[in-house]
Structure formats: C-alpha cells, structure tokens
TrEMBL record:
<feature type="domain" description="EF-hand">
    <location>
        <begin position="27"/>
        <end position="62"/>
    </location>
</feature>
<feature type="domain" description="EF-hand">
    <location>
        <begin position="111"/>
        <end position="138"/>
    </location>
</feature>
<dbReference type="InterPro" id="IPR011992">
    <property type="entry name" value="EF-hand-dom_pair"/>
</dbReference>
<dbReference type="Pfam" id="PF13202">
    <property type="entry name" value="EF-hand_5"/>
</dbReference>
<dbReference type="GO" id="GO:0005509">
    <property type="term" value="F:calcium ion binding"/>
</dbReference>
<protein>
    <submittedName>
        <fullName>Calcineurin subunit B</fullName>
    </submittedName>
</protein>
<dbReference type="InterPro" id="IPR002048">
    <property type="entry name" value="EF_hand_dom"/>
</dbReference>
Amino acid sequence: MGNASSTLTQYDIEEVQEHCNYLFSQQEIVALYERFCQLDRNAKGFISADEFLSIPEFSLNPLSQRLLKMVDGLNFKDFVAFLSAFSAKASLQHKIERETQLPIIASKSVIFKVYDIDGKGQVTFKDLLEVLRDLTGSFMSEEQREHVLVWVLEEAGYTRNSSILLDDFVKVLSSPGLKMEVEVPVD
C-alpha cells in the first residue's frame, strides 16, 4: 500500500477506514489513493516535502512551510489520517486533537501544532502574531495585526500575555461558523 505500482485490496481499504475513524468512505479512500500515487512520483510509498509542494493549493498556502514539517514522509495510511482532521464529518474535537499514531504529528493537534511555533505545547501572542503575519503578508500593518489579535484574545477571555494550552485552544476554536474542512473529489 502506498506504492504506485500496487493496488488497494478490500482489506487495505477497510484498514485505512478504521485508521481514519471511518471519516472517509471506501470510494473516497480509493480516490485519495489514486491522488497519493500521483504525488508519490518515484513510487517510494511515501510523499516527500517536494511532492507535497507540487499540489498547487498546498504550495500557495501561506502556512505550507509549517505544514510541511508535519506531512513530509507520510505513507498512504498516515496521509489519510492527516486529511481526516479536515473532513466535514470529523467532530471539532477530532479536528483539533486528531490523536493519531503518526510519528511526525505524535498525539498533538495538527492545527494546534501550526500555531505552536516553538513546539513548547502552548501558543503565545508572539506565535499568533507570526502566523497572522504569514497569513496577511503586506495586507495588514504590524499595528493592525496586534490590534486584531488583542481584540480576538480579549473576546475569548485572554490577554496578550496569556499562553494558550491545547484545551484553551479547543475552546477558542469552538466558535460557531468556524470551518476546517477538505473535500475529496470522487470521480
């Protein structure tokens, strides 16, 4: 599984479904496998950082360099588990925590890890500011970014001096209307 020259058996499909908590249908897993094989150009059984960057939507994402640290070298099963955190069927808790056996992600939140820049298990004002800087580029001044973050933190009951732990992060992201989803096109 994960090698471009191999095919998925029914057993493989069911194993991957179980690994991703049944958040993808068997048809979606087959479609993801076909895409995985296209990305795995040298049929190594895993996708390298360069291969991930060949996905236009991924390479254009301002957070792609942070995400690359988490996805470089994923085999097919872990690739699907990673994507399951963005499934429309996933609960918010699953999306944020996504406790998996992924060696790269460990049992940390995929999303939390993007914001926890120094990897210390907490998100600080400085971390949030750096991510917002990546997302907004030259469209916002540093002063505007700081103003927005102070307002958002205060709305959530925090200050610029607060450190946000994973549980706090879950509360902040639990706001209505927040969407963290990916659709799997099935031909």
